[in-house]
Amino acid sequence: MSRTSSLISEQMSLQRKNRVLLIIISLILGITIIIQAILLAEIVQQIFVEKASFSSVSVLLGLLLSVMAIRTLLFYSNGKIGLYMAAHAKTNMRAAVIQSLTRTSMPGMLLGQTGGKVSIALDAVDEADSYFSQYMPRMIEAAIIPILIVAFTFSLHVNTGLIMICTAPFIPLFMILVGLKTKHKSEEKYEQLSAFSGTFLDSLQGLVSLKIFGRAHHQQQQIERSSLGYRDATMSILKIAFTNTFMLESIVMLSIGIVALELAIQLLVFKSMTFHSAFLILLLIPEFYSLLKNTGTAFHSGRTSMGAVRKVEQMLAESQPTESIENTTEATLSATNKSITQSSDPLIRVKDSTPLSIELEDVKFQYAPDSFALETGRITITAGEHIAIVGKSGSGKTTLLHLIAGLLQPTAGSVLINGNTLSTYDESAWFQHVSYITQHPYIFAGTFAENISIGAGREVTRDQIVQAVEEAGLTGLVAQLHQGLDTLIGEGGRGLSGGEKQRLALARAFLKRPDIILFDEPTVGLDLHTEQILQRSIATLSQNATMITVAHRLYTIQDADQILYIDHGIVVDSGRHHELLARLSPYADMVNVQQKGVLA
């Protein structure tokens, strides 16, 4: 609850001017409501009691119409300000969610379902609208206008004022009781929606596999169960909403009835009131309770929104571990920032001369307690070197690559770039100098040219894209496409083979010309011809860069300037091919197996 309140408070603090404007408008609106009732009571008094002509009250009628128009305008203004506050708050929250996703560590990215995260970023944030557009304006109105009406009523008739004070608390009391239940049900609703969205998206992405393994019907039943769970959670909230409306109407009608009865007794039995005063009070009483009733409805919507905001809070909290790691480097960052900003950026300065050097100083990393751990010891990668990382499957090769790329933060030790800790560099500036090509590069829905240019990080010309295509060996493929570079390719690269996706990823790198190139076994599973094309492109691309490859082919290992051998998360040894053959038996055994495979 406190975290939810903190997020809402943060958004509200950004909108002080709008809140002050709401207070001013609500105050004027309350005065307008009272003036409208006074004018209407005076008109009725003169026409029906004093038998005055319509012409004699024409001025009052004109004033009444003007006041009613002003009241309508003020109410409309309150609504517009609420909508503006909601739009502003949703923009901020959605930006915070997206930013937290971009900052999430690799382990954090793997947690949860993609559909669930998308649902929170879209549906849950949108549901927060009611809190700012309805709940806040109505609560501000309820904090000002009913007090003005009660104070004015006390000046007319003390007994009625006392009845209003005694009956009014039942509405907020009931609102609190219902609100607590609503918030719990709302959190349950968005939990079900997140699960449903995640299951549905997973099923769509894996539909081919489900059909092949005969699990499509089973997954359909799972989606149906998830959908029914979301339906039940939604209906529970609607049930509470209908109950809330019924009870509020009952309380309001009963309260108005008590006031009307008391006025009738005073007017007809004791004759202690004038018709004008009684009628004026009867005009104000429905306004008073209607405001409280509308506040109750808005309160229900607000509590529903708070359940949605709670889901946003939970997603933002998932990025806290990463942020705390970043915060631990804040002191180092502030100490080094002066020297970095006083001179030119070290990354930019080195960019004009030589590739970047990398040092790993006793780097340690662990995904979770009692889980896989990686230890590197001290490793130096000279600028321009070609490094091969080898070892058995699951030994930590990809994890080491992620640490060097800056996608994971070390739990101990440091990754140094040209002598500076990697964490001291701005993330966007660092990634301008790195290309990371995985086994399965992601291809976005769009044209062939758009997918290549995304790797540049800047505006590029058509000629530059064409040159990157040629260097990546894609000229023949592009010539076969019916619209060339403007051919649309599907999300995930539908319509492209594995080798074509790899070459497209290489074209991105050719366009970028990075200082450090990271390869995670990019040629695994490719035919010999495609692999040879890729190897030639990789050799060309890495001529003026530091290249680090998770290697599996013998010729890649033999040609490396330095080989890092990893076993069970520990960098056991490093050196050139002939050096490791001579002193490291596990490495010699691995090479022997490779040679036998080639001969076979």
Automatic annotation (TrEMBL):
Cellular compartments annotated? Cell membrane
Pinpoint the ABC transmembrane type-1 domain residues. 20-304
Task: Please name the InterPro entries in this protein's record.
Answer: AAA+_ATPase (IPR003593), ABC1_TM_dom (IPR011527), ABC1_TM_sf (IPR036640), ABC_transporter-like_ATP-bd (IPR003439), ABC_transporter-like_CS (IPR017871), ABC_transptr_CydD (IPR014216), P-loop_NTPase (IPR027417), Type_1_exporter (IPR039421)
The answer to whether keyword Nucleotidyltransferase applies is no
Query: How is this protein situated with respect to the membrane?
Result: Multi-pass membrane protein
Keywords attached to this entry: ATP-binding, Membrane, Nucleotide-binding, Transmembrane, Transmembrane helix
ABC transporter domain boundaries: 358-593
> What parts of the sequence cross the membrane?
20-41, 53-76, 139-156, 162-180, 246-269
- Protein known as: Thiol reductant ABC exporter subunit CydD
Q: Which organism is it from?
A: Paenibacillus nicotianae
